[in-house]
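User: Design a sequence. Structure:
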């Protein structure tokens, strides 16, 4: 495979509030001295995540772009990736060359994954506060994302969850694919995450990273017709 010249696109997906934006901020802090970074966030109705990340000062504000999806998150990261693809291309045109663009999905349930046409690799973020049984509930992101993150391990004692057990169950559910137990307060775990990104980026640069699809979300329907209309689409 020829060596790519564009930035690697790294997707960050997972349920609402599991720490996707915080993780992106943590990665920017850990890697911005060695990699040229950009960020694209997806929110349904606002630019909240982009504004939050800009406020942290981890990157020059214009390197953080927001896509307002106006629909349920998988629409913009999987079904019609146009708005995100344009946002990444604009970032590269304005600030390129870049090494890695991190794309945050809007928070969704357990089923949303990125199209491999949008991202080269993707990580799926759960947190201990969502409950120790979430890993066992499974889904395409948990089972087959390139990396599973069990986040906020520092909170585990406060919510009566065994974080190590969650990480072990993640490993068991993933056929050897990697799992990182993460807390932004634990530098060793941040180092482990940053090393995974470094390795994945090196693979990408060599032309050896093949984007893989964790698989589609489960078929679903919205409960009320108005919801489907507001969100601009219906599901079979
Ligand atoms: N204790 C602890 N809290 C964390 C950690 N990471 C994130 N949080 C907190 O978790 C909450 C949600 O974090 P966000 O980064 O906004 O989560 P998100 O997944 O981006 O949320 P949405 O985009 O709304 O789905 C915030 O209050 C964070 O401060 C962590 O490692 N430890
Ligand atoms: Mg967020």
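Assistant: Done.
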């Amino acid at each position: 495979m020829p060596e790519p010249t564009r930035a690697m696109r790294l997707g960050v997906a997972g349920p609402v509030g599991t720490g996707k934006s915080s993780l992106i901020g943590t990665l920017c802090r850990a890697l911005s001295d060695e990699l040229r970074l950009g960020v694209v966030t997806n929110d349904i109705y606002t630019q909240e995540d982009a504004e939050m990340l800009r406020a942290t000062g981890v990157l020059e504000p214009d390197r953080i772009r927001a896509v307002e999806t106006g629909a349920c998150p998988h629409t913009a990261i999987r079904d019609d990736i146009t708005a995100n693809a344009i946002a990444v291309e604009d970032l590269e045109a304005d600030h390129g060359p870049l090494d890695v663009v991190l794309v945050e999905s809007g928070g969704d349930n357990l089923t949303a994954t990125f199209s491999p046409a949008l991202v080269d690799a993707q990580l799926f973020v759960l947190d201990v506060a969502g409950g120790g049984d979430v890993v066992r509930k499974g889904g395409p992101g948990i089972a087959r994302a390139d990396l599973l993150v069990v986040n906020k391990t520092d909170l585990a004692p406060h919510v009566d969850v065994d974080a190590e057990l969650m990480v072990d169950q993640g490993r068991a559910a993933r056929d050897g694919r990697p799992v990182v137990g993460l807390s932004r307060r634990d530098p060793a775990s941040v180092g482990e995450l940053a090393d995974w990104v470094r390795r994945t980026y090196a693979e990408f640069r060599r032309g050896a990273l093949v984007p893989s699809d964790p698989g589609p979300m489960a078929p679903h329907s919205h409960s009320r017709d108005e919801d489907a209309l507001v969100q601009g689409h219906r599901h079979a």
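Residues 47 and 122 are 22 Å apart (CA to CA). The pocket of magnesium ion (ligand 2) is lined by residues 20-21, 49, 104 (CB under 6 Å).
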